[in-house]
Write a structure and sequence with these properties.
With 252 residues, the chain is α/β, with parallel strands linked by helices. Helix content is 37%, strand content 17%. The chain contains eleven helices and nine strands. It has helices at 30-36, 61-74, 86-97, 120-128, 137-144, 151-158, 172-177, 179-183, 212-218, 234-237, 239-250; strands at residues 3-7, 16-19, 42-46, 79-84, 102-108, 161-162, 167-168, 196-201, 222-227. A seven-stranded mixed beta sheet has the order 1-3-2-4-5-8-9, with helices on both faces. Strands 6-7 form a two-stranded antiparallel sheet. Strand 6 and strand 7 (167-168) form a beta hairpin. Helix 1 (30-36) crosses helix 11, helix 2 (61-74) crosses helix 3 (86-97) and helix 5 crosses helix 6. 40% of the residues are buried.
């Protein structure tokens, strides 16, 4: 079972399950989870090979979807699901493989397609860091600067650094090996007929007009919307706007 964090105690509706993206963890979504928990029960998870969850030898989306299915069964059998990036793909596969487990689906800035970009350079930077020589987070941040010049990216990655344990809370070996699977999208045969919202950052190029026919084929009742002034990390860049859009859709 994946590591879970629970916020709120509403039992009148299915809980909201939030699924993070690559190199993240449930804690990345703590602020939004706590805010949504004012009238809903909200569960965040650490995906396999991330955070406090178990390390596995595969990082395939059907396996990630099955992991989420176990979580949904444990929290009541049905959930509203929010997934961002890698987590969005896992949430889509969950809804396609097990549509009875998902009531409403919110996919944040990702489409059910393969992408040509890779995030392997970040793994190389993390693996190259000698953690015995960086006993504090600020020292690790400084040591990463040459390879990762973007301060927000470094700050995000460093949330997964166990400074005291001198280790990354990420299975970097498996994530690097399976990067093509992570940036890809698996063969699927089902479809999800429930309400779905594909919410993108207006400045992002992850969800394009050319993706719409495939989205509508797999998710016939999908709607699409954008949050102005945001990129791929729309929930971090505009948390209040993201929260408002999520609340309106999930409580609709």
């Amino acid at each position: 079972m994946l590591e879970m964090q629970t916020f709120g105690d509403d039992a009148t509706r299915p809980p909201i399950l939030i699924v993070h993206g690559l190199y993240g963890s449930g804690r990345n979504w703590g602020v939004i989870a706590r805010r949504l928990a004012d009238d809903r029960r909200v569960v965040t998870v650490d995906m396999r090979n991330h955070g406090a969850s178990r390390w596995e030898e595969s990082h395939d989306y059907h396996d990630l979807g099955a992991d989420l299915g176990e979580v949904v069964d444990a929290i009541g059998g049905e959930a509203d699901v929010i997934g961002h990036s890698m987590g969005g793909k896992a949430a889509m596969v969950l809804s396609l493989d097990s549509p009875d487990r998902v009531r409403r689906l919110l996919v944040a800035d990702i489409a059910p397609v393969a992408y040509s970009h890779t995030q392997v350079h970040l793994i190389h930077a993390m693996r190259a860091l000698d953690l015995t020589l960086t006993p504090t987070r600020s020292q690790a941040n400084a040591a990463l600067e040459a390879a990762i010049p973007e301060p927000d990216v470094r700050a995000f990655l460093l949330q997964s650094l166990d400074v005291k344990g001198q280790r990354w809370m990420l299975n970097l070996e498996v994530l690097e090996r399976d990067m093509e699977k992570i940036t890809g999208f698996p063969a699927v045969s089902g479809r999800f007929d429930g309400p779905a919202l594909f919410l993108a950052g207006a400045n992002s190029d992850y969800v394009l007009a050319e993706h719409r026919p495939l989205i509508k084929r797999l998710f016939p009742n999908a709607r699409q919307a954008k949050i102005p002034g945001t990129g791929h990390w729309l929930h971090a860049e505009k948390p209040r706007e993201f929260e408002a859009a999520a609340r309106m859709f999930l409580n609709g």
